[in-house]
Amino acid sequence: MDRRTVGTELPDSMHVSKWVTALSNQYAGLLETSVIGSSMLGHNIYALHIGNRQRKVLYCGGVHGREWITSLLLLSFAEDLLSACRNGDRICEMDIGRLLKSGGLTVIPALNPDGIEISLHGAGIPGLSELLGGQLTEQIGSGSNYRRWKANARGVDINRNFDAGWDEMRSIALERGITGPSSEGWTGENPVSEPETRAVTALCEKETYRHLIAFHSAGEEIYWSYRHFTPPKAHIMANILAMSSGYSLSEPDRTASSAGLKDWFMEKYHSPAFTVEIGSGASPLPLECFPFLYNRLREMLVLGIAI
Ligand SMILES: [Zn+2]
């Protein structure tokens, strides 16, 4: 991993910015970088585009704070694609130059930079207590609670904030006693109320993506359906991703059955969308498991562009 531009360290917003800048400098001409939004605490939300712009797919990581290992996955993969493309190398026997001529990839490495910052650094981040309220900040600041943080800096769970079955998800949250800002599970007061949700939906509205994969941790599972909006080819595609990764195909339980990015994309575009839960064990997964995870998933990441 040391050969990488900046190294696989904990992906807080400073590290992600440094990595994105290094890639932009090193691969000018192959990579287009843009800032698609800004978090509540003012961190950039980046999108990196590689390859064919007309026929592309979207990978989104770092949706939940404690699942920051997905940001490492996507930045590492973006760097490997760029390097293979420049050097004429293959990844898992696939000719990357040829692949990227026929298909393109946009990567959002960290959709929720504030949540990642909380999970990595705790509640002492400047400006956080004003957004969250003192009580909740105090709660996450005690012990190591902060490491398990999933939401954004306003206590809204981004993957419960999309405009697809949002009312139902809000009722489920209320039933579960989640009635306001929380570490996880709070839908927000309205759908698409958060800058992170708006950043990715605006990108999808501006561009055309064939399909989308949202990366979460953990569970070694792939979610591929959403009510009657699931296109028929989604099942075949999910099987290809499952065969490559060794992960199983799953149906979400009721508490995660709508208002997510995958759900919104399928409902709005009638195109396939997947949630891939990488790794096993409780999140945050330790940094040490990253090399194993990456080696296991590299082929699936390439196939996700090819299918
Ligand atoms: Zn998640």
What's this entry about, in short?
The protein has 11 helices and 10 strands. The chain is of the alpha/beta class and 307 residues long.
How would you describe this structure to a colleague?
The chain is α/β, with parallel strands linked by helices. It has one domain: Zn peptidases (Aminopeptidase), CATH 3.40.630.10. 40% of the residues lie in helices and 17% in strands. It has helices spanning 13-26, 69-87, 96-102, 113-121, 128-132, 134-141, 166-175, 195-206, 233-245, 261-269, 290-306; strands at residues 31-38, 44-51, 56-60, 90-91, 94-95, 104-108, 209-217, 221-223, 248-250, 273-278. The strands form 2 sheets. It has an 8-stranded mixed beta sheet with strand order 1-2-6-3-7-10-8-9, sandwiched between helices. A two-stranded antiparallel ribbon has the order 4-5. Strand 1 and strand 2 (44-51) form a beta hairpin. Helix 2 (69-87) crosses helix 11 and helix 9 (233-245) packs antiparallel against helix 11. The chain is globular and about 55 Å long. The two termini are 27 Å apart. It binds zinc ion.
Secondary-structure topology with pairs:
Blueprint: H1 13-26, E1 31-38, E2 44-51, E3 56-60, H2 69-87, E4 90-91, E5 94-95, H3 96-102, E6 104-108, H4 113-121, H5 128-132, H6 134-141, H7 166-175, H8 195-206, E7 209-217, E8 221-223, H9 233-245, E9 248-250, H10 261-269, E10 273-278, H11 290-306
Parallel strand pairs: 3-6, 3-7, 7-10, 8-9
Antiparallel strand pairs: 1-2, 2-6, 4-5, 8-10
Helix pairs in contact: 2-11, 9-11
The structure holds zinc ion (ZN).
Zinc ion (ZN) is lined by residues 63-64, 67, 159, 216.
